[in-house]
Specification:
20 helices; 432 residues; 2 strands; globular; 2 domains; two-stranded antiparallel sheet; mainly alpha
Amino acid sequence: MSLSSPARYSRSIDWITVLLYVLLVGMGWVCIYASSYSAEAPLSALGKMSFSQLMAYNWFKQLLWIGTAVVLIVILLVVDYKAYDTLAYVLYAGMVLLLLVTMFVARPIAGSRSWLELGPVRLQPAEFAKFTTALAASRFMAGINLRYQNWRDQLVLAGITLVPPLLIIASNESGQALVFGALLLAYFREGMSPLILLLLAAGAVILLMALLVPKLWLIGFFTIILIGVFIVNRRVLRHFLPLSVGVWAVVVGMVLGVDFFYNNVLQPHQRQRIEVLINPSADPLGKGWNVTQSKIAIGSGGLLGKGFLQGTQTKFDFVPEQSTDFIFCTVGEEFGWAGSSIVILLYLALLWRIVFVAERQKSVFGRNYGYCVASILFFHITVNMGMTIGLAPVVGIPLPFFSYGGSSLWSFTILLFSLLALDAYRKQDLVR
């Protein structure tokens, strides 16, 4: 297949995924328009206002971002598909350098140095770091000699994964850093031991329990479990006593150390997010305002919603960041349970299609990258929707293709259409 046969190339593109992308971006723009609607600047005024006047409204700026995303899609599909594999490490190194520059050059915005300002345009390198990290990790996992049981290979993969989020955390942008943890799902698909996922999940549960349950009770609970295992199975006592005691000591250390970490490592706004997650009704007019108003907005939509542009929570700005992080509130309030269900089903269809596309790749690199894309999108979707209904902490990550913002739209577009570019040429790939 070559670019000299556009008709054949066009047939190789996964148009189902493209359709899902168009539907989500289109519905996202409708919600951005609703959330930032002003009677002084309706859509009918598009040809009556100057460019500078229109630039004051998010819905118009999002139109511009969508237009540039279309140009970006053409570039992604036209570029030689081998470049994604060949340049993976180069792009990763360039992004790490850009994150370093951002730490020192970026102007603080809401306490975070994570935005580069290029004239009137602001870009967030952390958004694009997900793409380059996914490429580099996929390239490394596609190596012929990669062995998941080899600690050296695991450390290299961990280094590739951890460097960008550590730089992002250093720029005081913890929400975006959490997204990189989703790549573990892709690594698990490619052979990483499930024990790592279980240990991380167990650690998170223990830390959460340490915040909710008196520490002496928790230590006593784990001590009783350890003693009970020894009583039930004497062989564990004989053969695994040092290991078992070591695990118990680590757990106790985590329980006793959670207060120090909570009070001395986490920043005030991060502590507030955890407090709101644990007890959102404790301070509904202060710390819990965002989540409280978000749940009111979604709940007030009922079955079919209040109707387009009829959302009172949205219209009167009760929900902060209603066109970005809390855009799902607009869906729930104006289109109700039915509209929210349609959006969720579209996301599920997109995730299923990405996994389908990943599984049919001829190259290990293509399959790895497809699962990285699915994992990143899955994390964004579940956490963003979860935080709007109080099931996840408010960490400030956008809803893919829905939230207002050029950086997020571009980054998700790059993630998705670079995969479609690889998929379009999958029949030419050699099995590695």
